[in-house]
């Protein structure tokens, strides 16, 4: 195998496929990048079996072939080379030679035949969505996935397509995040994608309106973003019927300025931090909400103006869950729907109906 | 005690004195900031005994007094408050009340009488130097201080004033860093300042030409920077006679472009990293220097143009020590003086005679 490639192009390609390489695999071959010539381009692939990323980059191919090369050291070498043309050539002793101006590296490579084959996916494109919208939907839900593996299905995000809508849903037993967008498709899909996959997909997605194409098979999802393909296995099992958790009715409704509320909660949470309970109490009355918290260090009282429709209420929360939601939301004003001090709290945008957040309250001993 | 203060001013003051507070002291009082009213200002002090920082900030004093307040929680609260006037007042139960707009905190305070007194230093100013120059001198030497406590004196930097020169010297047994500046004083000083102190001093020093005033006592050094005073104990013991280590003669001299040499060494070091030896070899001949390194992963060969005065030489180094020096130097070209493959290597600026770096070579088995 022999080719030349511009340093910046090769570096970007490596950086893309490295997102699938954990570097901690017990199989050495999975710590490598698979490089294969293909007419006037290179196909780079990284994989940890569950997640594989493949990207195509421009290259002058002088002699065809394929190798696997340790991703970490190869990435470091390419990154440190001059910003110029890089020449790569297989030489004796299972090695490649990397030459760029007056720098010359010899590096042992692995056998490309040992690299796992990617799942064969028939690219009947099922739907496509602008990159910035998908990126935003992932960002708006991924924080609510479960971090422990007690219930593996909750470490993923539900991709649900129905009624010409794409819904992304994450929940961890204490809170739920739902983002929705219209989608021009009659397909019906119900698949759970690992959170790790979507975290890497989100890094590759750009803030523009170009499309990402998404294909499903019974066991896999394929994202095609420009010259890059991301293939991930799906999580097995049934996702929780999230619709039955979200209450449709409420007894009181608050409208609040999002940043003012966020700042007040963040300050109130400083006192709760010490005992690691993050407990804050809301005292909602007329045009006024009082947030309090205390610990052995002292106490805090925050007051803010709200619009209240309904009866006054006292309710307590783990401040972390509210902070996560209010930080991720985008509108200036939020609507909070409550029913009782032990019922779920629903947070929505005031104007756009594209997200629903649910946070469970903390039941106080003296209630 | 009762006062008001602008949030941004109080926050900056806290941030300055927090640099002396490790937060890990077994004496709770040392995790606190001492706050004392003083006419129309507050004096804030943080201390870990070895290092104390005191700063004065503008404040409207309504009632005099002094308290000690936990630095971490106090700093977090002030940082999160609205950017407006903060009202602080001592109330019952050893507490203070912090009020800013609609935020109200009650926080337990400690007894200011338990706070250690700062060493009394007679501020006969011994010398003054522009902040940016001192900052640069610290930056140019601190990396060469010893990181382990085997020989405590080597964890400090020697401040030597003689012959109208200020010299800062650090060494750790493998390399030495010396920075010099002219100083208009007839004093003679020889004191070793803890590296930790200078690291914090360096963060407080600004990139401008305003003066920092420096006073010595037999056991302490005092830096006065604007409204801030930093007092540190000196390290006990005799510093190594560094002059006897720096060779005055050499057999060959190289002139090289600093960044080109740095990049070549950084690339060559990628191969040495795996075995953690960082070993790179120089092969110096005429207008050409070849740098090589190898490990079980492969090998690297870098070539660069140099100007050589003297005989060819082969010599090996720990790449880390050369990288540290070449990164910190500022001129485009460096001069390297060598005598043999087992003698120290001296690195200097080509044009300005304000620094001397020494790196010991690695003795190769086959030499």
From TrEMBL, chains A, B:
<dbReference type="InterPro" id="IPR001001">
    <property type="entry name" value="DNA_polIII_beta"/>
</dbReference>
<dbReference type="InterPro" id="IPR022634">
    <property type="entry name" value="DNA_polIII_beta_N"/>
</dbReference>
<dbReference type="GO" id="GO:0006271">
    <property type="term" value="P:DNA strand elongation involved in DNA replication"/>
</dbReference>
<comment type="subunit">
    <text>Forms a ring-shaped head-to-tail homodimer around DNA.</text>
</comment>
<protein>
    <recommendedName>
        <fullName>Beta sliding clamp</fullName>
    </recommendedName>
</protein>
<dbReference type="GO" id="GO:0009360">
    <property type="term" value="C:DNA polymerase III complex"/>
</dbReference>
<keyword id="KW-0963">Cytoplasm</keyword>
<dbReference type="GO" id="GO:0008408">
    <property type="term" value="F:3'-5' exonuclease activity"/>
</dbReference>
<dbReference type="GO" id="GO:0005737">
    <property type="term" value="C:cytoplasm"/>
</dbReference>
<dbReference type="InterPro" id="IPR022635">
    <property type="entry name" value="DNA_polIII_beta_C"/>
</dbReference>
<keyword id="KW-0238">DNA-binding</keyword>
<comment type="similarity">
    <text>Belongs to the beta sliding clamp family.</text>
</comment>
<feature type="domain" description="DNA polymerase III beta sliding clamp N-terminal">
    <location>
        <begin position="1"/>
        <end position="119"/>
    </location>
</feature>
<keyword id="KW-0235">DNA replication</keyword>
<keyword id="KW-0548">Nucleotidyltransferase</keyword>
<keyword id="KW-0239">DNA-directed DNA polymerase</keyword>
<feature type="domain" description="DNA polymerase III beta sliding clamp central">
    <location>
        <begin position="129"/>
        <end position="239"/>
    </location>
</feature>
<dbReference type="Pfam" id="PF02767">
    <property type="entry name" value="DNA_pol3_beta_2"/>
</dbReference>
<dbReference type="GO" id="GO:0003677">
    <property type="term" value="F:DNA binding"/>
</dbReference>
<feature type="domain" description="DNA polymerase III beta sliding clamp C-terminal">
    <location>
        <begin position="244"/>
        <end position="363"/>
    </location>
</feature>
<keyword id="KW-0808">Transferase</keyword>
<dbReference type="Pfam" id="PF02768">
    <property type="entry name" value="DNA_pol3_beta_3"/>
</dbReference>
<dbReference type="Pfam" id="PF00712">
    <property type="entry name" value="DNA_pol3_beta"/>
</dbReference>
<dbReference type="InterPro" id="IPR046938">
    <property type="entry name" value="DNA_clamp_sf"/>
</dbReference>
<comment type="function">
    <text>Confers DNA tethering and processivity to DNA polymerases and other proteins. Acts as a clamp, forming a ring around DNA (a reaction catalyzed by the clamp-loading complex) which diffuses in an ATP-independent manner freely and bidirectionally along dsDNA. Initially characterized for its ability to contact the catalytic subunit of DNA polymerase III (Pol III), a complex, multichain enzyme responsible for most of the replicative synthesis in bacteria; Pol III exhibits 3'-5' exonuclease proofreading activity.</text>
</comment>
<dbReference type="GO" id="GO:0003887">
    <property type="term" value="F:DNA-directed DNA polymerase activity"/>
</dbReference>
<dbReference type="InterPro" id="IPR022637">
    <property type="entry name" value="DNA_polIII_beta_cen"/>
</dbReference>
